[in-house]
Each structure stands twice: as structure tokens, then as C-alpha cells.
Write a structure and sequence with these properties.
The chain is of the alpha+beta class and 202 residues long. The protein has eight helices and four strands. The protein folds into two domains: 71 residues, Glutaredoxin (3-Layer(aba) Sandwich), CATH 3.40.30.10; 113 residues, Glutathione S-transferase Yfyf (Class Pi), Chain A, domain 2 (Up-down Bundle). Strands 2-1-3-4 form a four-stranded mixed β-sheet, covered by helices on one side. Its EC number is 2.5.1.18.
């Protein structure tokens, strides 16, 4: 099994953590989808990572789809509930975390443009999305809808989203007034799977 991605993508990190937690052996193929030399379009016509290549040469892309595929392999630990509505609620939490990643990524790309070409309106719009998303996650962490145990696709996605905010210094001060979310991600970051997938410092 091959995972096509790069070391800084929070979506790739999510899948890497799932693979590690399930003890699935995989080859990591480092690929920067933003370069013209990228091989990502060979695996995903949208040119995005992550993409997963199975031993049968099946290509799976988009992190929620890959997570679902890995769950279908029926390898412990189970990270998505069997009961359909419980699974749907968990996938909605995953979607919320992925949406925070989306907004953070748009912010990073916007800030990489020349200063004169950056849109403050767009940056503000993304900051507001992130803030509202984090506020909801804080509520879910406070009422235990989200917790560090048992490990799930949802709390993995949440930790990867927060890890990306920290890594790219998007929304500095996000942890102020969100103590339950801070505690949640701190517990998850202590797991070996998160330690092994931490983005490079440089």
C-alpha cells in the first residue's frame, strides 16, 4: 500500500495516523501537489493529496473516502461506529475539522501571494470560518461529544486541524477561552502516531 502525500498536509497526516493506529504497513511517497513535477494527478485527477494506492492498484482519493476505505478493511481499532446515524454524526465532526483545514489552507495560500495582491476580505472570511469552527469544537469537547478516548476518525481530524493551525501559525491565540479543546488535542498529541507524523520544523 502506498500513501501519496506530503509531510505538511493535515489531510495526509490524518490518513497517516489512521494507518499507523491500525498497524497497516505502507510506503509513503512524498509529493508536492503545488509543483508542475507532481505525480498527484496520476492518482487523483484533481491533483490533490492524499491518494492511496492499494496492492491491487486501486486508487482512492480524498481523505474522508480513504478513511472509509481503511475502515472497510475491518482492521482494529474501529474508528467509525457501525450504527449508521452515529457514524453520520462522527463524519459531520470530521467534516467540521476538515473545513477548518480548508480555511487554514486558503489563508496560507493567500498570505503567500505578494502583499499588494492579498485580499484582507478573504483572509477575514477564512479567519471567521476557523473561529466559528473552533467554537463549535470547544462546545463538543466540553459536553464530551468529542473526547480523546476512544480514538475515532473525528478526533483524529480535529487534532490534525489544530496541529496545522499551530504549524502554519494560522489564527494565533486560538486556544484562548477554549480549554476543553486544548486538553483534547494535548492528549491526542501524546500518541505515538501523532508524534511520528508531526510536520517538519523547517
Amino acid at each position: 500500500m502506498k500513501l501519496i502525500g506530503n509531510y505538511t498536509s493535515p489531510y495526509v497526516r490524518k490518513i497517516s495516523v489512521i494507518l499507523l493506529e491500525k498497524g497497516i504497513t505502507f510506503e509513503f511517497v512524498n509529493d508536492n501537489p503545488w509543483t508542475t513535477e507532481s505525480n498527484a494527478p496520476h492518482y487523483n485527477p484533481l491533483g490533490k493529496v492524499p491518494a492511496l494506492v492499494t496492492s491491487d492498484d486501486e486508487h482512492w482519493f480524498d481523505s474522508p473516502v480513504i478513511a472509509e476505505y481503511l475502515e472497510l478493511l475491518d482492521i482494529a481499532p474501529a474508528l467509525i461506529p457501525r450504527e449508521p446515524k452515529a457514524a453520520l454524526k462522527m463524519r459531520q465532526l470530521e467534516a467540521l475539522a476538515d473545513g477548518i483545514m480548508d480555511a487554514a489552507l486558503v489563508s496560507v495560500r493567500e498570505q503567500q501571494r505578494p502583499p499588494a495582491q492579498q485580499s484582507e476580505i478573504e483572509l477575514l472570511r477564512q479567519r471567521e470560518k476557523i473561529s466559528r469552527g473552533l467554537d463549535m469544537l470547544e462546545q463538543f469537547a466540553a459536553d464530551k461529544t468529542l473526547s480523546a478516548e476512544p480514538l475515532t476518525v473525528a478526533n483524529i481530524a480535529v487534532a490534525c486541524a489544530v496541529g496545522y493551525l499551530n504549524f502554519r501559525r494560522v489564527s494565533p491565540g486560538w486556544c484562548v477561552d477554549r480549554p476543553h479543546l486544548v486538553k483534547l488535542v494535548e492528549e491526542l498529541f501524546q500518541r505515538e502516531s501523532f508524534a511520528r507524523t508531526e510536520p517538519p520544523k523547517s
